[in-house]
Amino acid sequence: MWDGAPRETEAAVKWIDAEDIGIALSEKFPGIDPLTIRFTDLRARVLDLDEFDDDPKTSNEPKLEAIQMAWYEEFKDSQS
């Protein structure tokens, strides 16, 4: 059972790790265009990632926008 702690084989991901989060979201939600996701839903998806370990209160619009753009880059790459 998952206890909320990151696995020892994985490094914990923080809000500032937009590229790593974008990759993880792309793998977890293949085929979803991140530009169609509201920031509230994006935040919830980030918080749900197993490797994510940061204070939910420290998210903000610039961090979410960076994550969305990183995810979008992964999405575009997977479409070509």
Summarize the structure.
The protein is an all-alpha fold. The chain is built from three helices and no strands.
Can you characterise this structure?
There is one protein chain. The chain has helices spanning about 20-30, 40-45, 60-80. With about 80 residues, it is an all-alpha fold. It has a single domain (about 20-80), classed as Orthogonal Bundle (Arc Repressor Mutant, subunit A), CATH 1.10.10. The termini are far apart. The mean pLDDT is about 90.
Throw out a few tags for this protein.
mainly alpha; single chain; 80 residues; 3 helices; Arc Repressor Mutant, subunit A
SSE order and pairing:
Elements: H1 18-28, H2 39-47, H3 61-79
Helix pairs in contact: 1-3
Name given to the CATH architecture: Orthogonal Bundle
CATH topology: Arc Repressor Mutant, subunit A
- Taken together, the total number of domains comes to 1
Helix share bin = 40-55%
